[in-house]
What does this fold into?
Amino acid sequence: MSASWSFADAIFYFIALLTVVCGAYAVASRNIVRAVFSLLGTFLGVAGLYAMLSADFVAVVQIMVYVGGILVLLIFAVMLTSRIEKAGRSNPAARPLAASLGVLCGLASLVLLASLALLAPWKQTAAGDFAPTTAPLGEALLAEALLPFELLSVVLLGVVIGAVIIARRDPEVGG
Amino acid sequence: MDALYELITGSDLGFWWKQLLLAVLIGAVGVIVFSVALVYAALMTYLERRVSGRVQSRVGPNRVGPLGLLQWLADGAKMILKEDVIPAAADRPLFRLAPYPVVIGVFAAFASVPFGEWLIAADLNVGLLYLLAITSLVVVGILMAGWASNNKWSLFGGIRSAAQIVSYEVPTALAILVVVLMAGSLSTQDIIREQGGWPWDWYVFRQPFAFAAFFLYFTAALAEGNRTPFDLPEAESELVAGYNTEYSGMRFGGFYLGEFGNVYLMCAIATLVFFGGWQIPGVSPAEHHGSWLWQIVGFGLFFVKAWAASFVVVWLRWTLPRLRVDQLMSLCYRYLVPLSFVCLLGTAVLMMLVPAGSLFDSLLRFGTFGFGLLVAAIFFWRVLWHIRHVGDRIDLKILARGVRGRFDPAIQHRAYGAFRKQQKQPEESR
It folds into this structure.
């Protein structure tokens, strides 16, 4: 691509703006329900960025997992919380100790991410090179990355069993 | 689409012209897909109302246009012109925003639905996964509407709907995975190309597990689309209208169109995944590829198959009673999810053990096809048996004659005449 401002660049900046603005709103909003819903824009924006990086499979999975699963879970959690209309009660960012801890954690992860982004040896590919990634991903998962893949599935199985045990009604209490 | 893209990027126009043309191309494709989806969703409302009329021995819409075919235009105009009421206690921005994720989720999915071999906006490499993923936006919209309305019925409807859609996504995806396993691709067009035109070449009849997977998919997709017998989120008898109770005007129209677009979408996915898509019996893919005639026939075939499936969906809605919430959840997690895992495993085992094209493979294929025919035959025989023993309450043939023209009390009277005669002497007619 030339140095000029192309249509693809315009789409990129639009998506990036959507992601950042929605993310900022999610952090800054005092209304926790609106904050959760604004995450929708962030998740979709990140999916769009993946798609522009020619990671089509990851982009679709991002929508499926984050929008279809995690966001819905978050919304449920927020809606089942009592008296969430009062942000002071539900959002501990209002308290000084919690706020300073949060800022500290945020700074630490910012430093970590920035150092990763700047120091990692990124592989550069030509722009606009949209090769399908599904088949190579599948092969990698079942060949060189088989052990972590299987380990992850065992971890997930443990999580599912744990969730069932926690959610199960106590036979002595419930009927 | 791809050809036009190549044409633009390959041409020797200036940089700015190219970018402008690309933007116009993308915009035009978006507008076309949106309009097509809109028309399909609107036609679905017409089908629903006509079929429900027939099922309940009513007439249905028959005044606007021939056979009432333009009713959806009148409905659309009405919805746009109606006042958009926002309750005073509602969360205004969220209330206004809520229909958009629903409409976007359903209509964006149309981009990857094939209508014919050439007629697809974006033949994505991950098409089927995209279809499953992008429709999950609907859940967010419904939850948003349920919350923002600040109404207990709406909130109940929204939460029920979200629980239902999230749960039933699992069996839907697993049932589709059976076919993805057989086709070895996620692209919608590749999956259709792997099948053939004749019914025994379709994926439903390839082997018994795929046959079972189709029924699992259809049941789970009905629930995902909030259709009866799984329409708990909008159960009129309990929740007024569920998550869209407070909505009016075009915002209600958004939910309405999203729901009906979703019905066509699930039927189109069933058609392309299980029923051979646009493949024409006896026409090879090479012949199909270059010929305008076969393209049009293929489009017609896809259209007929998808709308036949939609008819079944509507028919089910007006025939079956609604499930309870606990029944709904136990149906999903105790039956559909384990059964779809069995189908997936069975398909994998069959693919390992039975080489394609072997004698056993064809035996499986034709055996499943024969079984399907048998089931259909028994079904139709039972339906005929019931009709004969219950007796038709209304003479639809006479009534249909009246539909074409204007309202005619004499014809209506004659149509119901047979029923009245039956009621006078109930013992003798039985």
Q: What stands out?
A: The first helix of chain B runs from residue 2 to 10. Chain B is about 70% helix and 0% strand. Chain B has a mean pLDDT of 79.
